[in-house]
């Protein structure tokens, strides 16, 4: 990806037609008199197009009219005065008779229609009319976008220097000025003031990240906002597993000064009752939510065991856990556990981990633990490592003993079973039996949420004080679920619980389509496709390496087929599967397949730092957003993609021909190199393949 990108010919088109559509000069001359007679008449085909395509008349060429031409090239005598008068009389008589017949038929049909129509049929006609009206408005909006919308956009300017690590919706200073209470200033607050349409430049000394797996353990200091003191300071267990070496930061899973992450994960496995962390899969564990993940070393180690760990941490202006974790090629996103629920469905993760994560679980009457319980699957594990849990230190820290008793009692009220406690680490197991909640003593734990309040996938809703997830049809213990990787192929019985009208055959067909698409996509990820230089005979484009990209963002993940196909093809990627709030909620299904993802509104900024993804993919997203009455401009969505995309990163969009052409017109405004690719199996859709160039900020 470090090679320079050559610009090529953008777009192109096919021309179809026949010689019958072309007129010779003599034919056009002979038709002049006839055109004078009929030029005020509207041809039948013109009237049809004027109704179906109201804009077509402005662009339609003047087509020849039919006429009777003799062998000499002159108009025949069928238009002589005598014959014309006779014809006029016959035509007038015919028109009178036809008009009378039409009136009689219209009155008769109207009479019978009035008698036979019922109230229900009138409602159906009204709703049908509304659907046609809405479709017409949508079509007109799309045509307006293509004809004039893009022309009003200007080429985007670069953002100011202080915006190189800009994260919309997470402005602590602004949140304090707006009067948010203490503790909520780090929360996500989106508004119109957070929308920016400028291009975020990387730091002056930014370098392309090292490819996986080297990039997991070594990153460039200049690519992240962190100071040497923050690197060396103590904090989370995994924060201390790093070393500063000139212009690089290296991460180690073991250290002579501290217990290594490998020993730590091995300890957790033994506390659960397993031989080692390699047996997590056999115990039903696949996805883990790591709250306050440090710099991702816990997840990096478990990734080698086929476990997928999602890091979730608060926004930090410097030394960000999320930014460094993503720079290492590991799943992470911004989020806080102060006042809002996670944007995940209930029953989403097999394990939740907190190692000195900074969350005070004993505060706010246990409401934070209730949210952990909501996203934890039945039979799942909650692992907490903190000085608060170290019973040997209670003699010196009486306050810790008090806090520990509060957490322990509340966990019992949630029907959590404490499996083991060693030094600073404790492991609980969530019940898989709903009857446990009914057997609790009165007042010993929070109540169950009613069906009205037990929302499957909340979108940053306020934290609730009742136990959620118990109303879900997805209440299945992790021990009863298929083990990874078989979990990614849901069974017919499992497909029925999502209420989306899907069957196992739909998932199988989706997998076949995506496996074929990924092979085609991957062959396009080469700068050679933009080269103007012809290849020599016999030369073939080199296939991009399996580790060309690492962090992938799927903006409209649907069933997670793109994620599944990438893994099936042996690519060294992880995918953030995003389900738009404007479409069907496929997120529970995606997470149950053993992937990670989040619910998101693409008219708001995505909760991540700039330059965190190597590839952004979206199929059908533009069509989905257009159907929602254009709540935000396409230019804003594309500028947000540019913010998230690393230099020399790739964008692959698939949509209708008209929308792809519209998007291609936007690409130069973002300074992207773009090319439209036809899809052989579908003439109504196109691919737009773009690459973001590497612009460097001049050093001061």
Automatic annotation (TrEMBL):
The chain crosses the membrane at residues 90-113. GO terms for cellular component: cytoplasm; endomembrane system; membrane. Its EC number is 2.1.1.-. Its main location: membrane. It holds the Pfam family Methyltransf_29. It comes from the Eukaryota. Signal peptide: none annotated. It is found in: Endomembrane system; Membrane. Keywords: Glycoprotein, Membrane, Methyltransferase, Signal-anchor, Transferase, Transmembrane, Transmembrane helix. It is a single-pass membrane protein; Single-pass type II membrane protein. One of its GO terms (biological process) is methylation. The keyword NADP does not apply. Residues 27-39 have a biased composition (Basic and acidic residues). It is an enzyme of class 2 (transferase). Belongs to the methyltransferase superfamily. PANTHER family: PECTIN METHYLTRANSFERASE QUA2-RELATED, SAM-DEPENDENT METHYLTRANSFERASE. This is Methyltransferase. The lineage of its organism: Eukaryota, Viridiplantae, Streptophyta, Embryophyta, Tracheophyta.
């Amino acid at each position: 990806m470090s090679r320079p990108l050559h610009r090529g010919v953008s777009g192109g088109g096919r021309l179809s037609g026949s010689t019958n559509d072309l007129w010779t000069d003599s034919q056009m001359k002979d038709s002049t008199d006839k055109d004078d007679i009929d030029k005020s008449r509207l041809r039948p085909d013109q009237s049809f197009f004027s109704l179906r395509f109201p804009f077509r008349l402005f662009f339609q060429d003047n087509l020849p009219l039919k006429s009777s031409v003799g062998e000499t090239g002159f108009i025949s005598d069928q238009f002589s005065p005598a014959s014309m008068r006779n014809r006029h009389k016959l035509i007038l008589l015919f028109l009178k008779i036809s008009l009378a017949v039409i009136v009689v038929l219209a009155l008769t049909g109207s009479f019978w229609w009035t008698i036979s129509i019922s109230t229900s049929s009138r409602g159906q006609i009204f709703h049908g009319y509304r659907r046609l009206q809405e479709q017409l408005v949508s079509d007109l909006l799309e045509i307006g976008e293509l004809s004039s919308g893009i022309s009003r956009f200007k080429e985007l300017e670069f953002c100011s220097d202080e915006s190189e690590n800009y994260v919309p919706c997470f402005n602590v200073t602004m949140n304090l000025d707006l009067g948010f209470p203490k503790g909520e200033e780090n929360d996500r607050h989106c508004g119109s003031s957070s929308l920016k349409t400028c291009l975020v430049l990387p730091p002056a000394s930014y370098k392309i990240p090292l490819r996986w797996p080297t990039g997991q353990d070594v990153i460039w200091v200049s690519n992240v906002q962190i100071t040497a003191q923050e690197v060396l300071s103590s904090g989370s267990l995994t924060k201390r597993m790093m070393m500063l070496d000139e212009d690089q930061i290296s991460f180690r899973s073991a250290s002579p000064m501290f217990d290594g992450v490998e020993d730590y994960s091995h300890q957790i496995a033994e506390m659960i009752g397993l031989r080692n962390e390699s047996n997590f899969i056999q115990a039903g564990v696949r996805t883990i939510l790591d709250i306050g993940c440090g710099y991702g070393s816990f997840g990096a180690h478990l990734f080698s065991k086929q476990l997928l760990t999602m890091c979730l941490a608060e926004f930090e202006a410097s030394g960000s856990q999320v930014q460094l974790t993503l720079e290492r090629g590991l799943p992470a996103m911004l989020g806080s556990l102060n006042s809002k629920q996670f944007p995940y469905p209930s029953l989403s993760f097999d394990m939740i981990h907190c190692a000195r994560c900074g969350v005070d679980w004993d505060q706010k009457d246990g409401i934070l633990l209730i949210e952990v319980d909501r996203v934890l699957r039945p039979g799942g594990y909650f692992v907490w490592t903190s000085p608060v849990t170290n019973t040997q230190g209670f003699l010196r820290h009486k306050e810790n003993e008090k806090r520990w008793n509060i957490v322990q009692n509340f966990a019992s009220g949630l029907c959590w079973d404490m499996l083991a406690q060693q030094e600073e680490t404790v492991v609980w197991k969530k019940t898989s039996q709903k009857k446990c909640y009914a057997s609790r003593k009165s007042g010993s734990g929070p109540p169950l949420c009613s069906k009205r309040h037990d929302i499957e996938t909340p979108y940053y809703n306020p934290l609730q004080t009742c136990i959620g997830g118990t109303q879900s049809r997805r209440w299945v213990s992790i021990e009863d679920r298929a083990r990874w990787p078989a979990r990614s192929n849901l069974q017919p019985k499992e497909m029925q619980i999502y209420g989306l009208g899907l069957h196992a055959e739909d998932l199988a067909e989706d997998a076949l389509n995506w496996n074929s698409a990924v092979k085609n996509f991957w062959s396009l990820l080469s700068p050679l496709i933009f080269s103007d230089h012809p290849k020599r005979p016999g030369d073939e484009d080199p296939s991009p390496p399996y580790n060309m990209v690492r962090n992938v963002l799927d903006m409209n993940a649907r069933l997670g087929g793109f994620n599944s196909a990438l893994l099936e093809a042996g690519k060294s990627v992880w995918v953030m599967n995003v389900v738009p709030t404007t479409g069907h909620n496929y997120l529970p299904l995606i997470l149950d397949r053993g992937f990670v993802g989040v619910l998101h509104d693409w008219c708001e900024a995505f909760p991540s730092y700039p330059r965190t993804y190597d590839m952004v993919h979206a199929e059908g997203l533009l069509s989905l957003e257009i159907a929602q009455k254009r709540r935000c401009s396409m230019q804003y969505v594309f500028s947000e993609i540019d913010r998230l995309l690393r230099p020399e990163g790739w964008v692959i969009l698939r949509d209708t021909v008209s929308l792809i052409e519209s998007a291609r017109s936007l690409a130069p405004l973002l300074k992207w190199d773009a090319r439209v690719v036809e899809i052989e199996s579908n003439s109504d859709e196109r691919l737009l393949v773009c690459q973001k160039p590497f612009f460097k900020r001049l050093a001061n």
